[in-house]
Write a structure and sequence with these properties.
Layout lengths: L6 E6 L2 E7 L3 H7 L12 H7 L2 H5 L27 E3 L9 E7 L5 E8 L11 H10 L3 E5 L1 H6 L1 H9 L3 E5 L12 H28 L25 H9 L4 E2 L3 E2 L7 H11 L4 E6 L7 H14 L3 E3 L1 H5 L2 E6 L27 H7 L2
Parallel strand pairs: 4-8, 5-6, 5-10, 5-11, 6-7, 9-10
Antiparallel strand pairs: 1-2, 2-3, 4-12
Bound molecules: zinc ion (ZN).
Amino acid sequence: MPPQGGIAVYGGGVFHRRVACVCCVVCACLFFPSLGAMAGFGSESLLRSLWTQGELAGNPADHVVTRPYANPADLSPPARTGPLIQLDPTSEGLRGVIRRVRIANDAKVLALTFDLCERASNRTGYRTEIVNCLREKGVAATFFAGGKWMRSHPKQTMQLMADPLFELGNHSWTHANLALTDGTETRDQVLWTQAQYELLREELARRAQARGLEAEMAAVPMSMSVFRLPYGRNAPETLQRLAAMGLPVVQWDVLGEAGAGSARNMALRAAGEVRSGSIVLMHANAVPRHTHDIVPLFVDELLHRGWRFVTVSDLLAMGKPETVQDGYFERPGDKRQFDTGYPGKGTLHPDPQAAARTGK
Ligand SMILES: [Zn+2]
């Protein structure tokens, strides 16, 4: 992407974002002395030094969804509500709702993405089988994590952050419907999540330093640089606000968990829909519940056909995004039902019965 000014903080493969500190460049350099020397999404040696194979593999307790529809909802902010890093506004070519990237020569490249959703009213899980499968096969992916999810899953977040295969993206603080939120609420949903990422990166840096591995932190991005809309919903002003906060809005052109029948049928259906530069939507915390069965079949099928998996940021750097102005799942307008039933302005989830009906 073309330079936009500011200072280069990290490069994710060939994707380079430029940011400016909330104070000034000098201030940023004091906080982050390794600015400008970074590349990639993490460090294999850091990952393997901080956690054993067994700790990375996790266990079935990680899958559990607890406190469903807690009352009162947890609307508490993160320990720091404002991120230290502000991204430069998004360039013109990356504005809108990105659904796919057109790549020269129709190269067989795609981005596999997983949402890690968590609302104010529940605490969701983490399907370890999915992450273990990707690590075993060496498959890159982008995880769009809620800020509250990151706070309730610090270990898993830091593991994803440290892993060079994976990129973390912003999925709002409590899975708000941003078609309904006003400017203040949208900003909190987005920036609290950016701040939570920074807090956990700082904790990761402390652990790295304790092992004499502080230099490895240079490869861990300072900030998340892509955003996914909860429910795939937005208003026109949502896109303007996110562009001002420097976050390209990334959706998908392939639903990885759609259809009926066996996991193999679903995996083959999704694999058959992949085009050059496709972005595939899946979930990694049991929404839906069968994704872990689909992932290995889907990945094997595409690897067998000669496809290459990259992160969203790397995909964006490879070509020209295809965009729309109104987010949707499969067809334009198909998720507007998510705009009804919200108490408040969109941050609180609709009632449990409505959630049970939609499965979201
Ligand atoms: Zn979500």
